[in-house]
Amino acid sequence: MCCGDDCECRPLGFLLGLPFAFLSLLLSIIGVIIWIIGLALTCICPCCLCVTIIVELALGLIKAPIHVMKWFTTKIPC
C-alpha cells in the first residue's frame, strides 16, 4: 500500500522488470557454474588470486536478478 511518499508497492515497475530479471536469472545460472568451478580451483590452489576474483564476479552474477528488480521498482513511480 502507498502511504504518502513512502511507496513500496510498485507493480508496474515489477512487471516491466520481469523480462530483464529473467535474463539476469540466466546470467545467475552461469554465475553458479563459474562459482562452483572457482571454488573447486580455490581448494586445489588457494594461492591463485585470479580465481578468487572470478568467484567474486560469479557471486555478483548470482545476485543480478535481485539487483535488476530493485532497480526497476525504484525507477517507476507509484
UniProtKB/TrEMBL annotation:
Name of the protein this chain belongs to: Signaling peptide TAXIMIN 1
Membrane-spanning ranges: 12-33, 39-62
Keywords, comma-separated and alphabetical: Membrane, Transmembrane, Transmembrane helix
Keyword Transmembrane helix: yes
Source organism, top-level taxon: Eukaryota
